[in-house]
Amino acid sequence: MELHDPYRASVPSAAPEGPVKPLDMSGVSFNSDGRVSSAATIAAGYTSSIIAARWLATLIDFAALALIIGVPLMTLGETVAKQATWLWTTLLVAYFPVMETRFGGSLGKLATGTRVVNIRGERPAWWQSIVRTALRLIEVNPFLFGAIPAGLVALMSSNRQRIGDMLARTYVLRRADIARIRTTGTAQVAGPVVSQAAMPVPPPLPPSPLPLPEDDNARWARPARD
Known about the structure:
Layout: E1 22-23, E2 29-30, H1 39-44, H2 49-76, H3 78-83, H4 85-103, H5 107-112, E3 114-117, H6 126-139, H7 148-156, H8 163-168, E4 171-174, E5 188-189, E6 193-194, H9 216-221
Antiparallel strand pairs: 1-6, 2-5, 3-4
Helix pairs in contact: 4-6
């Protein structure tokens, strides 16, 4: 059995061989002061009140779209309105992508103080808004179940997202909360960082050799000093 030497430094255990695995920090943003803040972290802290705000915004949008179709039918007549069906269809399809990419939200969201943003708190890109609009035909269709499917999914989602938000990687935030991401400018998404616990530990330095004792012959051969 090997005895423990109290004067000998313990050798740390060697790190496991192989590539160092980085920590997954995708989707996490950092402000200039180092605090974690992103659209995902803010949306995760919302209660069901954000669902009520989104529901109200949907009702306002339904009313706005009804006016886009109803007013021309009443003023121009049914014959002229049917001839311009392509125009009304284009307006209906372009309504959400144009409003979200240019203003951050539809008329309903502007009225309720909510915005559609990406992970950095910026307005969504065209492809993101198009994906949200395409899924809206199923989740928020007034001729099917209204906004009930979208509301149920967002209520059960950890980040209060409906399916269209999940596929488009967008979030719906309150306008006042976007400033928490942009306090000192647009937050940058952090890349993978390497865990310090996974870094290899360098081996300990060898102990310095002790000086050899001087024998008697060498000591007597040394010239005497006055």
